[in-house]
Specification:
The protein is mainly α and about 230 residues long. It has one domain. About 70% of the residues lie in helices and about 5% in strands. Strands 1-2 form a two-stranded antiparallel ribbon.
């Protein structure tokens, strides 16, 4: 089947930009949309914080309330040390995921669908692996090599099961976000083809809520996955 014929059968038409690098195929659209999400995240925070005042406006109040609420969740799972070290990371992670999840909903689809970066399984796996790497860094930093002792608890025969559980954490974390975002964008495109008015607009509003929810779920599960690293063994 030719490239043109394959594209005609696709529900989502990606930009025809791919780069072969070291034997790997890099989807440039995902990179461009990821960069756009980074830029928008920086701009949003800058616009809200650049005009910060002693008597804050609504946007500043909302941002500060969410920042404090997220800090409370982090402290309840990681303690005060975890909040001090990782609150900025989790706040940035949430904002980036929120912006990324919404890009595929709000950008126009003219021939080519400008998908969310989190529509690509490689993006979500990279984020979930980053979370696990941070967990290992802090776990080893606090406990040394003894951190890996939990793999043989309560007994050595449990090692295979504990390894499977450890591998399943980033896999499930990534696939949950990827599946929800991909399914939402496919459904939105199908709705536009079947009924271009009203119903797709309603789904856009629902997709906005789903994007916020999935960003929060990913962030919260990341906090939970990192929490054992702050336990002194």
């Amino acid at each position: 089947m030719g490239t043109a014929e394959q594209a005609s059968n696709e529900i989502i038409h990606y930009l025809p930009m791919q780069l072969d690098f070291l034997g790997m195929t890099v989807r440039m659209q995902t990179l461009y949309m990821s960069w756009l999400a980074c830029i928008l995240t920086i701009v949003i925070v800058w616009c809200i914080t650049s005009g910060s005042k002693m008597i804050p406006g609504r946007a500043q109040v909302a941002l500060e309330m969410f920042f404090d609420a997220l800090g409370g969740l982090i402290e309840s799972n990681l303690g005060k040390e975890g909040r001090e070290k990782l609150q900025a990371f989790f706040f940035t992670l949430f904002l980036y995921l929120f912006v990324s999840n919404e890009l595929g909903v709000f950008l126009p689809s003219i021939g080519v669908h400008f998908t969310s970066p989190t529509n690509d399984v490689n993006t979500v796996f990279a984020l979930s692996i980053l979370v696990m790497v941070i967990a290992y860094i802090y776990g080893i930093g606090r406990n040394g090599i003894h951190y890996f002792g939990h793999f043989v608890k309560p007994y050595l025969p449990f090692l295979p099961l504990n390894l499977i559980e450890e591998i399943a954490k980033p896999v499930t974390l990534a696939l949950r976000l990827f599946g929800n975002i991909l399914a939402g964008e496919i459904l939105l495109i199908v709705l536009y083809k079947l009924c271009p008015w009203v119903i797709p607009d309603i789904w856009v509003l629902f997709s906005l809520f789903v994007g916020v929810l999935q960003a929060f779920v990913f962030t919260m599960l990341s906090i939970i996955n990192i929490a054992p690293s702050f336990v002194k063994h």
